[in-house]
Write a structure and sequence with these properties.
Oligomer: single chain
Mean pLDDT: 87
Radius of gyration: 20 Å
Low-confidence stretches: none
Largest sheet: none
Strand content: under 5%
Number of strands: 0
Number of helices: 4
Helix content: 55-70%
Shape: flat
Distance between the termini: 45 Å
Structural class: mainly alpha
């Protein structure tokens, strides 16, 4: 299903457990949610780059001020790196919508569920599969 064939969202629409899972309106809802999230992340990233560019070369004369500025800049860059990875996950979710694979657990094929997707629209695992993964990580980490 192409994005152009997805319907317009009714005003105030919220997906519910009572409707057909991943119907065209629900898919469009999550597509719009992902696109808005992506646009917000890109806008913040652009602001950060502009800020870093405007700051120039750390011209603070005081060594403590310069150290604080460098720490702030490093933290900002780490945050942007996490956001870049998040944008990649959003792009993957948008691709799954286009391929009619969105909303289904990549491990079991079962529906992920509306409430989980509302909380984490980039989720690729059902809650049960995610919990299994986390348990496995904990037991292997302790080795």
């Amino acid at each position: 299903m192409s994005s152009s064939s997805l319907p317009l969202l009714p005003t105030g629409y919220r997906p519910s457990e009572d409707e057909e899972y991943m119907n065209p309106v629900m898919k469009q809802y999550f597509r719009q949610k992902l696109l808005q999230w992506r646009a917000e992340l890109l806008r913040e990233s652009t602001e950060t780059l502009q800020s870093l560019h405007d700051d120039g070369g750390l011209q603070e004369p005081d060594i403590a001020d310069r150290a604080t500025l460098e720490t702030d800049r490093a933290l900002e860059l780490r945050t942007r790196d996490r956001e870049r990875k998040l944008i990649s996950k959003i792009d993957s979710a948008l691709e799954r919508i286009a391929n009619d694979e969105y909303g289904y657990c990549e491990e079991t094929g079962e529906p992920i569920g509306v409430r989980r997707l509302e909380a984490r629209p980039i989720a690729t695992l059902s809650l049960e599969a995610q919990e299994r993964h986390e348990r496995m990580e904990r037991t292997h980490r302790d080795d």
